[in-house]
């Protein structure tokens, strides 16, 4: 299994440099760290008394990786869940916040191991996760990855501005879908035909 350091470095490399996409609710972002996160953490890197786009631009890779490890892995308690799930949940937490945990909680509830979908990794969720993992150790990571992929498609269904993250201009799998499938066994990847059928209603 990849280490937390390796996963954080991969997230930073994948997210890339500074962007300020008007269709992205997160606003100005660099290495996957949003301006909202930097304001919440009080990261005034320019020392001008406020956290602005200039501070996002000033963020370096090392600090971004430290932010992810502390605030998106350690603080939410992802290190307490079964190893098989940690990488995918961590990666999605960076992308979707507590929704990453809520999806997991809803999934294991459907498996018969009830967990309140509050986005908090508490003792009851940990116990339910361990039971679900013990029942299906070879399948739970794939199951979560598929639920994650479904979440992205559903998000794009309801928010047309986000569809460019789920499909390319030519209609192939977009970044969100490719990202989810990195954590799913190849046999469960959608073919390009299946992907295009899934998004056919988008026009």
Q: How is this structure best described in words?
A:
With 203 residues, the chain is an all-alpha fold. It has helices at residues 4-15, 35-41, 53-58, 61-74, 83-96, 99-110, 123-135, 140-158, 163-166, 175-181, 192-198, and strands at residues 29-30, 33-34. Helix 1 packs parallel to helix 5 (83-96), helix 5 crosses helix 6 (99-110) and helix 5 packs parallel to helix 8 (140-158). The longest helix has 19 residues, at 140-158. The model has no long low-confidence stretch (mean pLDDT 95). Strands 1-2 form a two-stranded antiparallel ribbon.
Task: Fill in the keyword field for this structure.
203 residues; mainly alpha; 2 strands; globular
Helix tally equals 11
The unreliable regions are none
Cα-to-Cα separation, first versus last residue? 40 Å
Spatial order of the strands in the main sheet? 1-2
Mean pLDDT: 95
- The level of helicity is 55-70%
The largest pleated sheet is described as:
2 strands, antiparallel
Strand content: under 5%
Shape: globular
Radius of gyration: 17 Å
Number of beta strands: 2
Number of domains: 2
What structural category arises from helix and sheet content?
mainly alpha
Give the helices and strands as they follow along the chain.
Answer: HEEHHHHHHHHHH
Short description:
The longest helix has 19 residues, at 140-158.
Please give the structural blueprint.
Layout: H1 4-15, E1 29-30, E2 33-34, H2 35-41, H3 53-58, H4 61-74, H5 83-96, H6 99-110, H7 123-135, H8 140-158, H9 163-166, H10 175-181, H11 192-198
Antiparallel strand pairs: 1-2
Helix pairs in contact: 1-4, 1-5, 5-6, 5-8, 6-8, 8-10
């Amino acid at each position: 299994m990849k280490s937390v350091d390796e996963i954080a470095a991969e997230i930073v490399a994948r997210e890339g440099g500074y962007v300020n996409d008007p269709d992205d609710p997160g606003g100005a972002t660099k290495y996957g760290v949003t301006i909202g996160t930097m304001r919440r953490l009080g990261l005034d890197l320019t020392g001008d008394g406020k956290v602005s786009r200039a501070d996002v631009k000033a963020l370096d890779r090392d600090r971004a990786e430290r932010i992810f490890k502390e605030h998106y892995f350690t603080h939410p308690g992802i290190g307490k869940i079964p190893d098989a799930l940690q990488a995918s949940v961590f990666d999605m937490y960076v992308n979707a916040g507590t929704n990453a945990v809520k999806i997991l909680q809803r999934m294991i509830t459907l498996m018969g191991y009830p967990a309140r979908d509050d986005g908090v990794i508490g003792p009851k969720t940990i116990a339910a996760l361990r039971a679900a993992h013990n029942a299906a150790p070879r399948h739970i990571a794939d199951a979560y990855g598929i639920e994650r992929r479904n979440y992205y498609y559903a998000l794009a269904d309801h928010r047309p501005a986000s569809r460019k993250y789920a499909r390319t201009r030519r209609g192939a799998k977009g970044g969100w879908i490719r990202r989810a499938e990195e954590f799913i066994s190849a046999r469960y990847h959608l073919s390009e035909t299946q992907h295009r059928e899934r998004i056919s209603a988008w026009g």
